[in-house]
Amino acid sequence: MRILYFARLRQIAGRGQDDIDVPVEVKTVRMLIKLLSARDVSVAEALQDLRTLKVAINQKLASLDAPLEGAHEVAFFPPVTGG
What we know:
Elements: E1 2-5, H1 8-13, E2 17-19, H2 29-39, H3 41-46, E3 54-57, E4 60-62, E5 73-77
Parallel strand pairs: 1-5
Antiparallel strand pairs: 1-2, 3-4, 3-5
């Protein structure tokens, strides 16, 4: 699965993406965050504020409890403002 980090999250993680094999027992975005955080302290820091973290699965906005079934790409990004 391709994991993408955008904006400030990319800076904190120190990279823009990871390509990983996600174990079958990791079934939700929230579980994926725990897995990614356990693997790398920089990613853990980038993804620590779940209150403001935004997520997209296959380029569609999703919740932290969204299932990963069928996901090829998960993107994490901070809140976005427009003008």
